[in-house]
Design brief:
The chain is α+β, with helices and mostly antiparallel strands and about 625 residues long. The strands form nine sheets. It has an eight-stranded mixed beta sheet with strand order 31-32-34-33-35-36-37-38, with helices on both faces. Strands 2-3-4-5 form a four-stranded antiparallel beta sheet, with no helix packed on it. The protein has a four-stranded antiparallel beta sheet with strand order 6-7-8-9, with no helix packed on it. A hairpin with a 4-residue loop joins strand 16 and strand 17. Helix 1 packs parallel to helix 9 and helix 3 crosses helix 4. The longest helix is centred in the last third of the chain and has 19 residues. It comes from Catenuloplanes niger.
Length: about 625
């Protein structure tokens, strides 16, 4: 097979564009001006006075940096950042600079660049020599930014964007600098592997770091408050569901907890007087609230028109909050909320919502909502998933695709998913389960697939098949399995562990052998993965048994492999060795789509659409 999918652009049948589905609740009309090629916008950051917002959007075909006036509704302006894709952007508190994260070639390796809001003085400021940049917080009222450069080891620094001066604070493995006090005397560090992280406060003068008294869980987000005397932190150390706590010295005070939701993310005002809380309720629906730190009173903010929220950020004075909103019917869109008035609205005629349909593209009068379903795995563990039923005259059974998410610390939610809609348009049902290891259901569920617990996650996939068949949803002879990243690994594992259950599969950027993954991935990715997958030496036999590459002789389902050519997270070798193992297997149809210029995440809309079309056509061909 070659780098181009055999027949990927000439497969029989029409190219069906992606649709969109509304929030749970049944059929709904398409929004005005909707088109299948609607774009995404994300990573909003407000100017200090709230008059403008900078954000990332793929309006031009690839993610770029856009600036828009929040008051006049004038058209957005594209900043001249070059041709490389952008994944994140942030506006300095003094209003003088915009810093963005660029990913040359689409690889996980990232660079930090700075540009003036008027589009001048564009230059690289961090991420040199193949290191990867992680941005932290700005120091209040300044152009100084906390930055971590990660390679074989990590270097935490304060970077003056205006002058380029770098002050290195410390180095180490699995290290991320979150915040620094205004006088740069104390630094807040995150350390540790995935799902087992902790926070430390570093005395910069002495180099001594003291861990926060939050043990036995995962503490991964934090900011200084009270001039550095207090740390605000997101943690599940004291509760299975993540909460917000304040740590002062050795005292821990819980500020926000809910019995029905976990704290997914939070943002603080520059003066540390208020906190925006993003709650994740069971199933993945978001709720937004504002916490007054002086009174500790929490009140709900107006719910944006969507189901899933992310990426919230305050303007300098806290008078305006920007966040990303999406639902099954709409892609990621920027919303602005006035916390004092309790009012919110979408960012004008956001570039992600075209004013008129695209000429020549079909319009779809209604869409079908996903349904949240609960089931039990073989060992009795409760799991759930979102079911998308194709629009038709009968109730099933249908040819059905099980889609496994990446991470595994991630979650299927009622969000925008063009791939699912392309499958529905071809008459295929889709079930998107949150197997053990998924986020959104508490620490115990996230940790349930660690090391040997992965056998349970694999069994969860078989339980999904049993549920779909016994419920009359799926035709047992026409079930497919797909996934990307960790979901691609789990797809390969399910196809080779339960070959009798599946009639087709697609693995996108999936691991096939843990040994080669640990050898070839980025060093910082390998170090952080040990807590989830196991140690490459100490758990060698376990990892070999969990690696689907060694059971490819059991594969029976037609298999499509999709990978980004520049992927250094899950290197392309992981797909290539599966292809080699299938060499000469005329009894198993297989093909390979390699996307040039893309890394682990497909950032260009054309690349994403190519992968969607190829995946949908492959499954429609082999399941219909």
């Amino acid at each position: 097979m070659t780098a181009e999918l055999g027949g990927a652009t000439t497969l029989p049948g029409p190219v069906v564009p992606a649709l969109a589905v509304p929030p749970p609740g049944g059929p709904a009309p398409m929004p005005p001006g909707w088109s299948p090629t609607t774009c995404d916008s994300w990573s909003p950051s407000l100017a200090p006075d709230g008059g403008r917002v900078v954000f990332v959007s793929d309006l031009s075909g690839a993610p770029r940096v856009w600036v828009r006036d929040t008051r006049t509704g004038a058209d957005p302006i594209l900043l001249p950042t070059g041709d490389e894709p952008v994944t994140r952007v942030t506006w300095s508190p003094d209003g003088e600079w915009i810093v963005y994260v660029s990913t040359p070639g689409g690889a996980p390796r990232a660079e930090a660049w700075a540009i003036r809001p008027d589009g001048t003085q564009n230059r690289q400021i961090a991420g040199f020599d193949g290191t990867t940049v992680l941005l932290g917080d700005w120091l209040p009222g300044s152009s100084r930014l906390t930055v971590t450069e990660t390679g074989a080891t990590a270097c935490a620094m304060v970077l003056d964007v205006a002058t380029g001066a770098r002050r290195e604070l410390c180095t180490g493995e699995m290290l991320y600098l979150l915040d620094v006090t205004a006088d740069e005397s104390r630094a807040l560090l995150r350390r540790g592997p995935r799902s087992a992280r902790w926070l430390e406060v570093l005395d910069v003068a002495t180099g001594k770091a003291e861990p926060l008294p939050l043990t036995g869980g995962n503490t991964d987000r934090g900011w200084f408050a009270d001039g550095g005397a207090t740390v605000l932190a997101r943690t599940d150390a004291h509760s299975d569901l993540a909460t917000l706590v304040a740590v002062t010295g050795g005292e821990v005070v819980e500020l926000a907890r809910r019995p029905d939701a976990e704290l997914e993310d939070f943002a603080v005002t520059q003066d540390r007087s208020a906190v925006a809380l993003l709650w994740n309720r069971y199933g993945g629906v978001s709720e937004l609230a504002l916490l007054d730190l002086a009174t500790r009173e929490q009140r709900a903010l107006p719910p944006p028109a969507g189901d899933v929220f992310e990426g919230c950020a305050f303007a300098g004075d806290g008078g305006l909050l920007a966040l990303v909103v999406q639902s099954a019917i709409q892609p990621r869109t920027i919303w602005l909320i006035d916390p004092a008035l309790g009012e919110g609205h979408a960012l004008g005629d956001d570039p992600t919502a075209p004013a008129t349909p695209v000429p020549g593209e079909p319009s779809w009068p209604v869409v079908i909502a996903p349904q949240l379903c609960d089931l039990r795995s073989g060992d009795g563990l409760a799991i759930s998933g979102w079911l998308y039923r194709p629009d038709g005259e009968h109730d099933g059974p249908w040819p059905t695709v099980i889609s496994l998410h990446g991470g595994p610390e991630w979650q299927w939610r009622p969000a925008h998913n063009p791939l699912f809609q392309a499958l529905l348009a071809r008459g295929l049902a889709v079930f998107a389960p949150n197997v053990r290891g998924s986020t959104g259901f508490g620490r115990s569920f996230v940790d349930a697939d660690n090391r040997a617990g992965r056998y349970g996650a694999i069994a969860d996939v078989a339980a999904c098949v049993e549920y779909l068949v016994s419920s009359g949803i799926a035709d047992p002879d026409r079930i497919g399995c797909i996934g990307r990243s960790y979901g691609g690994y789990l797809t390969l594992t399910a196809l080779t562990t339960f070959p009798e259950l599946f009639a087709a599969g697609v693995s996108e950027c999936g691991m096939s052998d843990f040994a080669s993954f640990y050898e070839r991935t980025e060093p910082w990715i390998a170090a952080a993965a040990v807590s989830k997958y196991g140690h490459p030496e100490h758990d060698r036999e376990l990892l070999r048994d969990l690696s689907p590459l060694h059971r490819m002789d059991r594969l029976r389902a037609p298999l499509l492999l999709v990978h980004g050519a520049n992927d250094t997270n899950v290197p392309v070798y992981e797909s290539e060795q599966v292809l080699e193992a299938l060499r000469g297997r005329d009894d198993v149809p297989h093909d390979y789509l390699l996307l040039p210029g893309e890394g682990h995440d497909f950032l260009a809309r054309t690349s994403r659409q190519t992968a969607i079309d190829a995946t949908a056509q492959w499954l429609a061909t082999h399941l219909s």
